[in-house]
Design goal:
It is a single chain. By secondary structure, the protein is mainly α. It is about 75% helix and about 0% strand. It is built from 14 helices and 4 strands. The chain has helices spanning about 5-10, 20-25, 30-50, 55-80, 90-105, 110-135, 140-160, 170-175, 185-205, 205-220, 225-255, 265-275, 285-305, 310-345; strands at about 165, 180, 185, 255. The strands form 2 sheets. A two-stranded antiparallel ribbon has the order 1-4. Strands 2-3 form a two-stranded antiparallel ribbon. A hairpin with a 2-residue loop joins strand 2 and strand 3 (about 185). Helix 4 (about 55-80) packs parallel to helix 9 (about 185-205), helix 10 (about 205-220) runs antiparallel to helix 11 (about 225-255) and helix 12 (about 265-275) runs parallel beside helix 14. The longest helix is centred in the last third of the chain and has 32 residues, at about 310-345. The radius of gyration is 21 Å and the shape is globular. About 45% of the residues are buried.
Length: about 350
């Protein structure tokens, strides 16, 4: 699994890095992702020492289930951000799909129909976002900020804010309880989405277009690529992924609520940017997104085990997001400094 797609577009990989082999390795490595690997190790060691239960298999399995929706939506958000866009409506889409799917099940519709309908409903909201931003030239930030309110509002209007229960005997509810090799079905689904997302981003023409649009959109357009369509499909992907995450959250909780996934979009964006994807487009890494999701999940899980207030978690997540943006802005300076140090003759 490749961890950095940017050099293929920017041409950095085609330059021969001066200095020692270590300096050349450093020049071709995604520094932000590498840095976050170190942060992950330190976090696990720190929480493991502070609370021995943190490193038990039961807790790690539970953490994998908790971060599964972040990974699923984060993979799709990587495509959106890499193409130079942003989607703030994924949390509302999750709540909409969870609530409406629960209502459809309550009305007697079979899970085999509700599951694809839920994913398609999420993709439909992504299509709206993509059409408005790509074909009508409205900034994605403005479009998704507006639809974030509209989508959750529709779900709240429909359910009047009440949670809709899901019968535990239904197939969708059983998915929430299913497990394999000690890990939940949601965790395995998230792993599958991450692998497929990495292949799509790193080994297909669509992934190359997404990366190219994020760095040099005009050049890609002049090469004959329909850049608007590519950007719209990235949004559709994000909506469909949010729909899938909404179904899995409803299955795990045994109910669908229009109030679920509050501020979920901030957690996802933090995970994506933490992993090394450039917030301004042109560079994306699926492996980094998974690492970013693990970091956000470990912080939430560790603070809970330490008995800290649950209200502290969003504060820490927000601070981590600011740190991630700072690293994105200063990453090239740090990279240049490390390359000079590694290239210095001994």
């Amino acid at each position: 699994m490749s961890t950095d797609t940017a050099p293929e577009t920017t041409g950095e990989r085609t330059r021969s890095a001066p200095g020692s082999p270590l300096a050349q390795w450093w020049a071709h490595t995604n520094k932000a992702t590498l840095l976050m690997v170190g942060v992950t190790v330190l976090l696990f060691l720190g929480f493991g020492i502070a609370e021995p239960k943190f490193l038990t298999f039961a807790n790690l399995s539970n953490m994998a289930t908790q971060i599964a929706p972040i990974v699923i939506v984060g993979v799709a958000m990587t495509f959106v951000i890499t193409s130079g866009q942003i989607d703030l409506s994924v949390g509302s889409t999750i709540a909409f799909v969870a609530a409406i799917s629960a209502e459809l099940l309550l009305s007697g519709l079979d899970s085999a129909v509700v599951i694809p309908l839920g994913i398609l409903a999420g993709a439909a909201w992504g299509l709206v976002n993509g059409w408005l931003s790509a074909y009508n030239r409205i900034p994605p930030f403005v479009v998704t900020l507006a639809t974030m309110s509209v989508i959750r509002g529709v779900a709240l209007l429909r359910t009047e804010g009440y949670s809709v229960p899901i019968d535990s005997r239904l197939f969708l509810a059983r998915i929430g309880d299913a497990s394999f090799l000690g890990f939940s079905a949601a965790a395995w689904i998230a792993l599958t989405v991450a692998v497929l997302g990495a292949i799509l981003l790193n080994h297909t023409r669509f992934g190359q277009y997404v990366t190219g649009i994020g760095s040099q959109e005009e050049s890609v357009r002049r090469a004959g690529v329909n850049t608007r369509r590519i950007k719209m499909w990235a949004m559709v992907f994000a909506g469909g992924a949010a729909g899938l995450a909404g179904l899995l959250i409803a299955a795990r909780l045994g109910s669908g609520s229009a109030n679920s996934a509050q501020a979920f979009e901030l957690t996802v964006i933090a995970a994506v940017v933490l992993g090394g994807t450039n917030l301004f487009g042109g560079r994306g890494t699926i492996l980094g997104t998974v690492i970013g999701a693990v970091i956000t999940g470990a912080i939430a899980n560790g603070l809970t085990l330490l008995g800290m207030s649950p209200f502290l978690t969003p504060i820490v997540t927000g601070c981590v997001l600011i740190l991630a943006i700072w690293l994105n802005l200063r990453g090239r300076d740090v990279s240049d400094l490390m390359r000079r140090l590694l290239s210095r003759p001994t």
